[in-house]
Amino acid sequence: MLKNYFKIAFRNFGRHKLFTFINVIGLSIGISAALVIYIMVDFDFNFDKFHKEPENVYRIVTEYSFQGEASYNSGVTGPLAAATQSEVTGVKVVAPFYTIDGVNVFIPKNSGTPARFKNQSNLVLADGRYFDIFNYQWLAGSAKTALKEPYQVVLTSDQAKVYFPAMPYSQMLGKTVIYDSIKTTVTGIVQNFTKSSDLTFHDFISYSTGVNNATLKDWLGLTQWGSTTSASQLFVKLNGKASAANVEKQLNLMFERHNPKKPEDKGNASSFHLQPLNDLHFNQHYSNFDNGRTANKTTMYGLLIIALFLLLLGCINFVNLTTAQASQRSKEIGVRKTMGSTRAQLIIQFLSETFLITLFAVIVAVALAPLILKLFADFVPHGIKIDYLHHISLLVFLVLLTVVVSLLSGFYPALVLSGYKPALVLKNQAQTGSSKTRNALLRKSLTVTQFVIAQFFIMATILVSKQIYYALHKDLGFKKDAIIVLGTPFNSINTNLKQVFMNKISSIPQIDLISVGGASPSSGNTNSTTISYKDGKKEIKTDVQQKFGDENYTKLYQIKLLAGRYLTKSDSSKSYLINATYAKVLGFKNPATAVGHLLDYGDKKITVVGVVADFYQKSLHDAIKPLVIMIPENKYNNRTFHIALKPQTQGGNDWKKAIASIQKTWKELYPDDDFEYNFYDENIAKFYNAEQHTSTLLTWATGLSIFISCLGLLGLAMYTTNLRTKEIGVRKVLGASVAQIVRLLSTELVLLIVLAFVIVTPIAWYAMNKWMENFADRTTISWWIFALSGTGMLLAALCTLSFQTVKAAVANPVKSLRSE
């Protein structure tokens, strides 16, 4: 029986090759999208789930509130770990660690110069408690003793092979690894995680090293309750019965005891929160570790919706075309019923045909998936790969997808086709009565649904592109073109090479101006501090962003001065520029009245010497905040060169010459360090990588949805014209023109597209508004977005219909009437 079902199915496919092709292509596009998106979403949702009792593991993070404005830090104060260990109940393991980046690593050799590895990141100070929480496989050494003493280090297997190639792990124990000037001994090797993890650290230096080394001890700040850095991380593992809320409450009460509030802290607050381990990969507030990636759950769910829509479009095509073909198989069904076939047998037969088409589509999708991942390699998360043989959940997903799509696409057509009555079928009356009306209504409804989805994608794509264009071309309050940003090596911070470098490159003719300081006006880095202002009646205490730069900083970036003066070379760190937003927060309606007032910065009095116009300190996602610009107060804020280039001559390569000259000088002064620079406008563009990736995905989704919808529309047009062939012939004989015939055949389908436009417009408008809420400054949702998408969809549909309607309209009526 089953063999017979498949034989009939293949025979039917051969008889209706084009409809079968349309169904397979439509379903394969939807299934391949669903498969790739499943792989991406499954990858992100399974980060760090392999650890023992992950539901009991939390990171302690810090939330601040300054005059009602919240800010977030993934780190904690230095003394918190020890206090938590001794004063908080319900905690099983307390594991502090400190992240370190930008370190040069040296591996001594028996003879010759030691091997050097530049600017290593993902290094941490940790101890055995870290390995009590996170499950590493030990290849050499012991978790109990490996990090017990100062100046010990544990390496991951991959990093160990980098430092000591071709050496067995057991022989690596006792080897020396030098981190800048800190000499350590290898005491353990652990296996790299084979599953997705945000814990990508590969050098674990014993935490006691930090306590015994003067520089590192200063970084740890083990006695400074009022200082927080994201480098100082603290993980805890709770007892199975402990309440996270209770532990959080204990932490904040303990913090108040050790760091009681002062009168000037009124209106400001800080608190600790327990962030679940499974939230690390998604929480945008607290971010991930320095080189980690955070995923966006909204984006993940959006991807799932896109996959569902594309899958739904393919299924709609199948239902539409199968029910439209019903009349062509009605006699077959009538004969089968007359010969004794039951309705259940017919349903199984039609479902088997659907299953075969779906299976073909799944095979095509499996072949396409690796190509799609390569196509989107620029923003597919690193580490994603397709392994059908070892990824059991992937195979289960494919099986479930095949079954679900088969049932979703085939069950209703099977019910319709198997429901024909033999007596009516054999009298050519299968399409009379209410059945025809219900089927037609269903096809129209599904067609409208298709074009609602397609037009929604078009509108979303246009809006996202418009917002990206707006962000990249908006006046941000400073110059961003023709500026090179270059950071000097961290290990040369105590030398005078920086001044020598500046003196040498100043003579390069293509350079217009040079400034030395900290981060650029708009950057991913944030420096902030608390500054107070007393106006005689009350004290205004505010969290203020800081930008560091010499006297050329504001000139180079062309930041507009509203009142007072710019900073000069003779100014000290007690003279500040403030932005217009900060002036308003302090109560000055006129920027000029803010000039000359004193602000309290710790134990210092600082003078406002000028007010500059507002500029964006980050992307347009974030609102402009109170800000001060100051002369660098320490060497750490004075190691970035901002170099403005002169305009290029037409057809010239002035900038290439300038960069080559800068590089030559760099190599003279910093021979051991790589020359790395960025054009500032490129840095700004990186702020919107996520939106650009979204735009690319939406563009592809839009193209595929239009393609699938038009495929279905073409199939329906072919069915309609075939059904009305004799009617068209009669109308032509009676004098109807080609244009009239085309209008007759197209009107109904065009009206369905117009109806879809009416339905989708308010839905798209609402969704666009919700998405735009992510931006503090955003473009407008213009009426032409909807008009353009509706017109574009209509034109695409008319082009698709014209292939079949024009062909039917110009056909010789003699051929269509010959059988009458």
UniProtKB/TrEMBL annotation:
One of its GO terms (cellular component) is plasma membrane. It is a multi-pass membrane protein. Residues 305-420, 703-808 form the ABC3 transporter permease C-terminal domain. The keyword Transmembrane applies. Keywords: Cell membrane, Membrane, Transmembrane, Transmembrane helix. Residues 20-251, 514-647 form the MacB-like periplasmic core domain. InterPro entries: ABC3_permease_C (IPR003838), MacB_PCD (IPR025857), Macrolide_Exporter_MacB (IPR050250). It comes from the Bacteria. The chain crosses the membrane at residues 21-41, 300-321, 346-372, 392-420, 441-464, 697-720, 741-768, 780-803. GO terms for molecular function: transmembrane transporter activity. This is ABC-type antimicrobial peptide transport system, permease component. It comes from Mucilaginibacter pineti.
